């Protein structure tokens, strides 16, 4: 029984060695023809906006706050976690750290936010 096991193991190892040798010979005989790598995808070029077009363009509905403060052009402060927005004059307006700053109340309402209690 031990002989049969040794013989089977030897034949399996021999078959593996022959398979590796055949594979290596086949690799050497195959001509080397690397496929050209595809060109990396580039995003499309954005159209250039002139100063005159930029001055006449409407501002975006919301912008990100700058250092936890809203710019003067977008005074409405919005907290996305609670889904409410604060306008100047609200009791919590000064202490609110906004996630977004909206152009006006209508823009905040259009995004699904609700006004804070006064």
Q: What does this entry show, briefly?
A:
By secondary structure, this protein is of the alpha+beta class.
SS field, number of helical segments: 3
Provide the low-confidence segments as ranges: none
Major beta sheet, strand line-up: 1-4-2-3-5
SS-based class: alpha+beta
**Topology as H/E string?**
HHEEEEHE
Distance between the termini: 92 Å
What's the rounded overall pLDDT mean? Answer: 86
| Whole-angstrom Rg | 35 Å
Helix content: 25-40%
Strand percentage lies at 5-15%
Shape: elongated
Oligomer: single chain
What is the β-strand count? 5
Let me know the largest β-sheet.
5 strands, mixed
Structure overview:
The longest helix has 28 residues, at 2-29. The relative contact order is 0.12. Helices cover 34% and strands 12% of the residues. The chain is of the alpha+beta class. The model has no long low-confidence stretch (mean pLDDT 86). A hairpin with a 4-residue loop joins strand 2 and strand 3. The chain has three helices and five strands; from the N terminus they run H-H-E-E-E-E-H-E. The protein has helices at 2-29, 51-56, 105-110, and strands spanning 62-63, 76-79, 84-86, 100-102, 114-115. A five-stranded mixed beta sheet has the order 1-4-2-3-5.
